[in-house]
Amino acid sequence: MKVLYGVQGTGNGHIARARVMHRALKEKGVEVDLLFSGREKDKYFSMDDFGDYQTCRGLTFVTENGKIDHIKTVAKNSAIQFSKEVKQLDLTKYDAVLNDFEPVSAWAAKRNKVPCIGISHQNAFRYHVPTRGVSWLDRQIIEYFAPSTCHIGLHWYHFDQPLLPPIIDTLCCSKQSDDYLLIYLPFENLQQVMDLCHRFVTHKFVCYHPDVTDTHQVDNIELKPLNYTDFQQHLACCLGVIANGGFELPSEALVRGKKLLLKPLTGQFEQVSNADTLEALGLASTMEHLDAAKVRQWLDEENPESIHYPDVASPLVDWIISANWSNTESLSHQLWEQVDFPSYVSHS
């Protein structure tokens, strides 16, 4: 079997998930080529695991100071360029396209009538799951941004829907503890993040941010450039995580038993819904802006119990190879039976 794996490159969570899936596909003997879109080629980092991958422009969004800038987003995206990339993508040598919310490969598959299996957290919003602030436009984006013939939705809880648990590197889920807090707020203004940390001089922070070009110390903050391996090491040993409202990083924090404080990206319903859902489940605290009072309250919280999520990638690849793509219920049931939630988790 040979597949093209299209991955949304705007956020690093999609890429982290692709690392796990790519390894599982290769272990099962599937030939896989990778296509990333959503950012300039020189903005990707720590990509050696993927070998000879390809990139294209695709579609993306522009943020400024923790909010989506809709005017700049429209200006940055070109419908003509996108259409050209879709038409030029050659799928003749592939049996199927795997897709993590990547629009070029998804639309190319639709155009060429190639089976497309969408595997993403965004697909969970096609089902009856908790949401907040979902507009008509948001619904259209979920439906048409990266269309597929089969939709696999990932979430922290099944909500009685045929969803799958998060795809996490279960080989890197050891729980350790050091004396610092990890911050990853790539959509926020770096100086504003630093100002927030400086309010808590008795605490140490390690802050990864795309605007940092070299590792250096500023008072109680160690500033780090984006690096996958280094970040995973800091995640394993931190006391807690302050992050935006994405899906993959909170998932990795939950299996490591790290307390979470989430500041969702303003104007992005997925992140707002994620933050609300984790708070409702009793698995995270949230703040709508960089709020020192919320941070102070969160610092006094205890670390939670870790959640055991099983290896999802390997059985998912077996399911892909089986080509019985109309049936997701049995795979969903099999995987959720293995999930062990702490007793305090509320999902009523």
Can you characterise this structure?
The model has no long low-confidence stretch (mean pLDDT 91). Strand 9, helix 6 and strand 10 form a beta-alpha-beta unit. This protein has helices spanning 12-27, 70-76, 79-88, 103-112, 136-144, 190-197, 228-237, 248-255, 269-280, 292-299, 313-322, 329-336; strands at residues 2-8, 31-37, 54-56, 63-64, 67-68, 96-100, 116-120, 150-153, 180-184, 204-208, 216-218, 221-224, 240-243, 259-262, 285-286. The chain has a seven-stranded mixed sheet with strand order 11-12-10-9-13-14-15, sandwiched between helices. The chain has a six-stranded parallel sheet with strand order 3-2-1-6-7-8, sandwiched between helices. The chain has a two-stranded antiparallel ribbon with strand order 4-5. By secondary structure, the protein is α/β, with parallel strands linked by helices.
Approximately what portion of the residues adopt beta-strand conformation? Answer: 15-25%
> C-alpha Rg, in Å?
20 Å
Number of helices: 12
Tell me the distance between the termini. 41 Å
Q: Low-confidence parts, pLDDT < 50 over ≥5 residues?
A: none
Structural class: alpha/beta
| Strand/helix succession | EHEEEEHHEHEHEEHEEEHEHEHEHHH
Largest sheet composition: 7 strands, mixed
Overall spatial form: globular
Mean pLDDT: 91
**Could you tell me the number of beta strands?**
15
Q: Helix fraction? A: 25-40%
Spatial strand order of the main sheet: 11-12-10-9-13-14-15
